[in-house]
Design brief:
heterodimer, A: 115 residues, mainly beta, 7-stranded mixed β-sheet, 4-stranded antiparallel β-sheet, 11 strands, globular, B: 110 residues, 5-stranded mixed β-sheet, 0% helix
């Protein structure tokens, strides 16, 4: 689904380097999320944002930071990458629907390898 | 969010209906049942969700038992492209995250 795009799609970097993963969406959704997935495991939430001025930590935020530059853009940074941050990273978006359920839609993912 | 239990894997013949079960015996009244699937490291794809009533869309049907303790995702005419990991997720309304368990590996065979 091209409504949620992630760049880069693949990245190999070295321990200690700073790296930024970017997510853009054209769905007009207020809410954005960053997840990581390790081989054979489910997705875990890193950070989420319910609007431009709102940033919240997820269950595994240590070693990561985020920036919500605009409604459509949500970036994830690894300040000093380490090998155990090697994973698949997914961005997701959802619409704020008040008291109703908000379905999350995912981007294609970024495969990050830290050597 | 309530815990879910799914079979590890299932096989289905191409063209037949695939019925994927999910147990969520501790589900609360304000929790929805969501289904996603993930095809070989691609981004998870939303399939369907429901609260109490059965739901149907262009991809699948969701059957929720009256006591809401279990549900079944039905792919009416499975194709080879439906081979994926299917995740059943229980989530509160406007919860901040989706909790993905191990899911069910569905293999559609010709």
């Amino acid at each position: 689904d091209a409504d949620v795009t992630q760049t880069p799609r693949n990245r190999i970097t070295k321990t200690g380097k700073r790296i930024m993963l970017e997510c853009s969406q054209t769905k007009g959704h207020d809410r954005m999320y960053w997840y990581r997935q390790d081989p054979g495991l489910g997705l875990r939430l890193i950070y989420y944002s319910f609007d431009v001025k709102d940033i919240n930590k997820g269950e595994i935020s240590d070693g990561y930071s985020v920036s919500r530059q605009a409604q459509a853009k949500f970036s994830l940074s690894l300040e000093s990458a380490i090998p155990n941050q090697t994973a698949l990273y997914f961005c997701a978006t959802s619409e704020n629907r008040g008291g109703s359920s908000d379905t999350q839609y995912f981007g294609p993912g970024t495969r990050l390898t830290v050597l | 969010d309530a815990k879910t239990t799914q079979p590890t894997s299932m096989d289905c013949a191409e063209g037949r209906a695939a019925n994927l079960p999910c147990n969520h015996s501790t589900i609360s009244g304000n929790e929805y049942v969501y289904w996603y699937r993930q095809i070989h490291s691609q981004g998870p794809q939303y399939i369907i969700h429901g609260l109490k009533n059965n739901e149907t869309n262009e991809m699948a049907s969701l059957i929720i038992t009256e006591d809401r303790k279990s549900s079944t995702l039905i792919l009416p005419h499975a194709t080879l492209r439906d081979t994926a990991v299917y995740y059943c997720i229980v989530r509160v309304v406007n919860g901040n995250k989706l909790v993905f368990g191990a899911g069910t590996i569905l293999r559609v065979k010709s």
